[in-house]
Amino acid sequence: MTRAHEPAPAWSRGGATAAVIVAAAAVAWLAVIHETDGMVSTPGTMGYGPAGFLAFWTVMMAAMMLPSVTPTASLYVRTFRDNRAVRIAGLVVGYLAVWAAAGLPAYGLAWLTGRLTGMHPGAANILAVAVFAAAGLYQLTPLKDRCLSHCRSPLGLLLHYGSYRGKTRDLRVGVHHGGYCLGCCWALMLILIAVGVMNIAAMVGLAALILIEKLWRWGPLASRLAGIALLALAVATIWLPWLAPGLHATPPMMMG
Q1: pLDDT score at 213
Q2: I want to staple 174 with a disulfide (CB 3.0 to 4.6 A). Which of 88, 91, 202, 224 is the partner?
Q3: How high is the pLDDT of residue 14?
């Protein structure tokens, strides 16, 4: 029997960490669903200014990305006996800070596409094809494979993190891991520009694909198949522009 003063087993610490992170992602999903209720997919920033867009983007990334970070976080927490909640909080904050920073170019791109499609409606189809093609091609690159391999091998990352020292160690661990996740998934997030930043179905589909890529045994194969599918989608969009509702929809409006 485990005595009261003995630390919890490593598997228990890791399981609790995973549960907390998944719960945080679930709360983020509820917030995203609430915010998108009644919104129509349109080109551009959905009427958000920079601050509002970044806030929504960060919550959206928490919903979509946090579940895939649970293996690394669970293994990381097993290496400590105290201050585990603080350490995991630092890791998550650092991880989300990377994705929050990615919201800046995302806002710029969304604003630019909104302006371009507003001034030149015919450009919408060209942009849609370009977005799907770029995302598909990146899925097939060595850089994608390299970043994905790091995300799929948290044990190797933990050996690297053992050299980290100082009070900001956990934050830097989150930033480092978040950087690899950004390198792995940025092109998939680009798809949201074409299908709509507030497209819940697209968010769920992309989140599921990211989980499959990172956690499933055949994740790398799924990544390549997704790339081929995106290239086929780019070709199909030439004749079926409705496949990119985020670039062809009517102006945004709130449903009463």
Answers
A1: 96
A2: 91
A3: 54
Structure tokens at 51: 């601050």
Quick one: what percent of the chain has pLDDT higher than 90? 53
Helices of type H across the chain: 10-36, 50-77, 84-119, 123-139, 142-152, 154-161, 169-195, 200-215, 219-239, 245-248
The residue type of 186 is W
Rounded CA-CA distance 211/200 in Å is 17
Q: 102: Cβ–Cβ under 8 A, 6 or more apart, which residues?
A: 57, 61, 182, 186, 189
Instruction: Determine whether 250 is exposed, middle or buried from the number of CB atoms within 10 Å of its CB (0-12, 13-18, 19+).
Output: exposed
d(CA 78, CA 45): 41
Of residues 192, 190, 172, the one with CA closest to residue 182: 190
For 41, the token pair is: 């997919």
Contact present, 99 and 182 (Cβ < 8 Å): yes
Token pair 């053992």 in the structure block, residue: 162
Interatomic CA distance for residues 156 and 61, integer angstroms: 25
